[in-house]
């Protein structure tokens, strides 16, 4: 029986997986979105259900920017492991340059406060629990702190203190940016799995092995063991992998990859989570996928493939908390949102910050996970002060987003469509609109977004459109994917008028 990739669509990069009994748990990077580190559960490695987030409190995930050298900060490359009845997730928060781990007795939490690891000159940390009781922390070496490659040290898992100094253990195969390492003990060998080539079209997975956890490591003569570079396969930039053994003894790999828009080399959904089988050669080297290639469709072999998780595209905001598909952009400001002020609605109070700022805006969004889809929301909003604004956005980062919104301009209530692409910022269209209720709609195809609004009498008006390519990673930079977001702003001051969003509908189309 066959299955299709990606197994988790949309912006879900750097997957890491562990097995507990017959259950699998997976985490991915979340960068500057809060809550952080989405966690998923599966019984078959193909059908994944999000069961929450690992980092749900600001004390676990402070996202205030302390520098601005990249548009994607926050959580990079978490690793999940299970040992002696306890789950551990280790990661780096680039916003404060801290490497840390948290633990929990249950995968759905609550998770502990962060245990900070001091003195590690590395990134993309991973944990390995050896049978002799030693715990190894493996990471990519920070550029400028020595040779490029992989470092490792022993860790006291109770205190977070490094027991030994970091030791350089492998330089990789010569590809750029060796990163995302994972150490495993399989039979008599320690295997070191590494991502190389940068997280673009040259991305790949390489492996080395040794009889000792510190090496010397022997490089697989057939590296890379996974890469779709120099092909026209639908999934590109495959890499940053983790491997796991299923109950039947078969081996599998989760890894990131993106789907470029057909006939182009750009992508906007972000790097997604994919799955491929792992075979072992006669001389005990792993091979991922179809002889090192990742396909859109692979044979599930003996996996006990179950029914797909039902798509949850209709949000009525009736519960006391947001479901796990929703995120804020950075830590939400106090008083900026509520599910109780108006029953059955998400209420946003515009803050002084806008979608263009490095502070946290009043923003609640979910990932775009399909090229073709339709998004709609009913908003009740009566701006009273100049500049008060609320609406629906397609958001990549502060410098790249489109929105359809209602605002107050020169004493008049208007609906506008605006595009922000780098330093180019323009209101493309605006029209007077005096009613308090409006339905905003976005129709997405692989190449374009079309923005509309519907009046209370049911009349629909198209107000603008924008190319998906101008919000792509290749144009916007960073490491995330697109979000559909509900937002509000006072454009320099806190709004006096709340925006109530009664529902949010996400209807996937054909892929």
From TrEMBL:
Record site: Important for catalytic activity, responsible for pKa modulation of the active site Glu and correct orientation of both the proton donor and substrate: 124
Biological process terms in GO annotation: carbohydrate metabolic process
Keywords linked to the UniProt accession: Glycosidase, Hydrolase
GO MF annotation terms: hydrolase activity, hydrolyzing O-glycosyl compounds
Gene3D superfamilies: 2.60.120.200, Glycosyl hydrolase domain, family 43
Boundaries of every Beta-xylosidase C-terminal Concanavalin A-like domain copy: 314-506
Active site: residue positions: 14, 179
Protein name as catalogued: Family 43 glycosylhydrolase
UniProt lineage: Bacteria, Bacillati, Bacillota, Bacilli, Bacillales
């Amino acid at each position: 029986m066959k299955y299709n990739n990606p197994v988790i669509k949309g912006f879900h990069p750097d997957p890491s997986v562990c097995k507990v009994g017959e259950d699998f748990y997976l985490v991915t990077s979340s960068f500057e979105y809060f809550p952080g580190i989405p966690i998923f559960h599966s019984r078959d490695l193909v059908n994944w259900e999000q069961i929450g987030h690992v980092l749900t409190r600001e004390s676990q995930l402070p996202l205030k920017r302390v520098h601005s050298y990249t548009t994607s900060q926050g959580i990079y490359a978490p690793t999940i492991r299970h040992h002696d009845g306890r789950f551990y997730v280790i990661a780096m928060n680039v916003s404060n340059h801290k490497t840390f781990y948290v633990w929990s007795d249950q995968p759905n939490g609550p998770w502990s406060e962060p245990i900070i690891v001091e003195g590690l000159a590395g990134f993309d940390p991973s944990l390995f629990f050896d049978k002799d009781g030693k715990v190894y922390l493996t990471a990519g070496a920070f550029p400028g702190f020595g040779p490029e490659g992989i470092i490792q040290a022993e860790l006291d898992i109770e205190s977070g203190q490094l027991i030994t100094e970091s030791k350089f253990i492998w330089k990789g195969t010569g590809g750029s940016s060796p990163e995302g390492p994972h150490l495993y003990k399989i039979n008599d060998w320690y295997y070191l799995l590494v991502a190389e080539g940068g997280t673009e079209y040259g991305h790949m997975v390489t492996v080395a092995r040794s009889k000792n956890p510190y090496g010397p490591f022997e490089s697989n003569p057939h590296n890379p063991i996974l890469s779709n570079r120099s092909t026209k396969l639908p999934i590109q930039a495959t890499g940053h992998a983790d491997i796991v053994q299923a109950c039947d003894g078969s081996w599998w790999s989760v890894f990131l990859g993106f789907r470029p828009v057909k006939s182009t080399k750009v992508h906007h959904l972000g790097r997604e989570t994919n799955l491929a089988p792992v075979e072992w050669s006669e001389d005990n080297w792993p091979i991922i996928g179809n002889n090192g290639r990742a396909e859109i469709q692979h044979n599930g072999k003996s996996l006990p493939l179950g029914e797909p998780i039902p798509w949850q595209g209709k949000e009525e905001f009736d519960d006391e908390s947001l479901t796990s598909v929703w995120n804020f952009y950075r830590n939400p400001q106090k008083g900026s949102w509520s599910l109780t002020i108006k029953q059955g609605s998400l209420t946003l109070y515009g803050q002084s910050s806008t979608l263009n700022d490095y502070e946290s805006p009043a923003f609640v969004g979910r990932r775009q996970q399909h090229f073709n889809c339709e998004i709609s929301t009913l908003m009740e909003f009566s701006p009273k002060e100049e500049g008060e604004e609320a609406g629906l956005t397609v958001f990549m980062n502060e410098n790249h987003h489109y929105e359809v919104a209602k605002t107050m301009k020169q004493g008049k209530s208007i609906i506008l469509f605006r595009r922000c692409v780098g330093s180019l910022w323009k209101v493309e269209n605006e029209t007077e609109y005096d009613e308090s209720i409006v339905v905003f709609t976005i129709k997405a195809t692989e190449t374009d977004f079309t923005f509309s609004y519907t009046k209370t009498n049911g009349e629909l008006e198209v107000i603008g459109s924008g190319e998906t390519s101008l919000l792509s990673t290749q144009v916007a930079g960073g490491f995330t994917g697109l979000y559909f977001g509900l937002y509000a702003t006072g454009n320099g001051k806190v709004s006096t008028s709340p925006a109530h969003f009664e529902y949010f509908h996400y209807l996937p189309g054909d892929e």
